[in-house]
Amino acid sequence: MSEPMSRRTFATVLASSVILGQDVSAAPEPEVAPRPHPKRIEAPFERDYPPPAFTPSWRRPQINHLMVQDFVIFAHTDIKMVEKLLNREPGLINAFIDWGGGDWESALGAASHMGNREMAAFLLERGARMDIFCAVMMGQLDAVKAFLTLQPKLIDAKGPHGFSLHFHAQLAGPDADRMLEFLQSIKKVDLPPNPFLKKNNTQPKPG
Residue 69's domain is classified under what CATH number? Predict the structure, then answer.
């Protein structure tokens, strides 16, 4: 790798180009080292309690963490890459990734908070586990009522990145008004404009 050009050297070359009529723009730019890939930081932990009686054998390798990360990211908007990775590793369908601090997200969770019905339907067909956030976004009112009958406190549940049920209801397409009306009848919430409602015009970045 060539050494980076100093300010004095650059000034000299620039001055020479003006005097001699040389084209400095054609000169090769100094090479820039690639940015290192950020590394995951696992919180330190030591048991301060007796270990469980069962010790896992870990006979089979875990699905690669980078593959899980990419799969969940693609699940926000890129159905072709989701299908490609899922065909390669079917176990990804219900994989979760912790973005930090317990912010868990699955592919279905990603599709749901983006209001991506096509993606969610595809994932459900491939075996993703339906949850209340997806049911809200998909406009499945009977399913949402069943969830809340089983556990009323789910009205305060938070999905990936802290997005609420009401937030997901805003993305329920033709069922949004009906879903919001039901959720607001249980708990009134002031809702700002949802940034993912414009997804059909411009693809937003993953949550």
Answer: 1.25.40
| CA 78 to each of CA 119, 126, 160: distance values in angstroms, whole numbers, following the listed order | 8, 16, 18
Query: Please, where are the H alpha helices in the chain?
Result: 7-20, 65-74, 79-88, 107-114, 117-125, 132-137, 141-150, 165-169, 176-186
| The pLDDT value given to residue 165 | 98
Phi then psi dihedrals of residue 97, to 5 deg: -130, 140
Burial label for 118, CB within 10 Å (0-12, 13-18, 19+), is exposed
| Residue numbers in the chain where pLDDT is lower than 50 | 1-5, 7-25, 200-207
Could you tell me the residue range of the domain that residue 69 belongs to?
A: 65-190
Helix axes 79-88, 65-74, angle to 10 degrees: 150
Specify the number of domains making up the chain: 1
Does the pTM surpass 0.85? The reply is: no
52-92 pLDDT tens trace: 999 999 999 999 999 999 999 999 999 999 999 999 999 99
